[in-house]
Fold this sequence. Notes:
The complex is a heterodimer of chains A (261) and B (216). By secondary structure, chain A is mainly alpha-helical. Chain A has eleven helices and no strands. Chain B has two domains: 1-61 and 139-216, 3-Layer(aba) Sandwich (Rossmann fold); 75-137, no CATH class. In chain B, helix 2 (78-89) crosses helix 3 (93-107), helix 2 crosses helix 4 (122-134) and helix 3 crosses helix 4 (122-134). The N and C termini of chain B lie far apart (50 Å).
Amino acid sequence: MKRTPILVELWRFRGLLRSLVVRDLKVKYQRSLLGLVWTLLNPLLTVAILVTVFSYVLRIQVDRYWAFLISGLFAWNFLQQCLYHAVALLRDNAHLNRSVYFPREILLLSAALSKMVEFLIELAIVALVLLVFHHHTIPSSFVFGPIIIAILFVMVVGLMFPLAVLAVFFYDVQQALPIVILSLFYLSPVFYPVEMVPGSFRPFMYLNPVTGILSLFHTVFYNGLWPSWTLLGTVAATAMALFTLGYWIFRRYQGICVEIA
Amino acid sequence: MRRRPIHIYHADFLLSEFNLRVLPGESVALIGPNGCGKSTVLRLIAGIYSPTSGTIRTIGRVAAVIELGAGFNQELTGAENIELYASIMGLTREQLAKRYGEIVEFAGIPGFMNMPVKYYSSGMQARLAFSVAINIRPEILLMDEVLAVGDEAFQRRCLEHLQAFRRGGGTLITVSHDLETIRALCTRAVWLDHGRIRMAGEINEVVEAYLAASRG
């Protein structure tokens, strides 16, 4: 069957993409009393708990630990929420996928985009708070913000694609994901800086793609420093590689998924 | 602990030696016993399924109405679902804006547009979904057993609208068990049995043969 190029199809269905993102955001906040406040309350609670534990119980020696934590935590949240959504995506929409033709990428992109909207709101607040209470000025490094956000988005979508397809073929993926996410939480510099890892182990940290992107967020937002070009380049390249591979897997197997999901 | 193996069901091919040519403006009915592959044909034409072998060529926009209201979100209102469903089916926002009034009017339940659809009756939801689908106005319309929704008056309206669609040059391929309606609507019929075309031709001939076989 003749296949229209995907970018053309995505443009044709841009109305759908917008509708789905709006629907996701609406449904989430329509019935809840506190509405948009939940976006902030949940992570705020997490921050409060983590700061208490790692400042007063297991004392991590970081200057103004709370500032360090919030600079990376929301990026992590975005990643983990998207991955959780991805494993359920094709199964939950199996009914829809069998009934109407539309590029399945839209489902994934709309989920990622609606979570990105929330992330951007959170990040804007974080940036403001850091500006006022931590830096007392506007660090020039903030200009890298959009770049690292874009890299994060590409990487996360690149991970969502193969996950969505794998979850249809292997029931275990959905079961295993919480364990994987938990492990990643400890193995990535989410609540501790990568500098704390002993020299001999540090290279292994960077094998984990999440390490790179998180340390970029820390450098830009917490340290207020320009990231090294090496790190930036490596993380960007990794994100694009993951995206290319992940999307290739998706394209290859999503047709079958429609029939068996 | 029981491990669930992966099942990819490779029965015999669902459809074999299936060749069909539909010219613009024709209206074809697919009839046959349950499980013979009729819905699969529609899904293949719509691009929802990909064929294992062979090619499918369509010229012009295809809209498939296979399961009514598949895109409906129960928490959203009627108006919001119209917008969502229309965009899933491929309408742009400009097109929808123009036809929105017609859609609401066709559905015939004007006072309920601001109510979440989970409070609608199943008949109301079906009417709303059908109203959106029928206003997509594609070149090729594929319908899968959705003709029998709503009350008498609504069904009549649907039939009129489909006749108008045909007069306007649209191509219709429909799967239905409602032989009376398809006799009124279609000029050709294809009788499918176990994935193979058993008979194809003028509507009345094929329907008679099918009925005779079902009785005998």
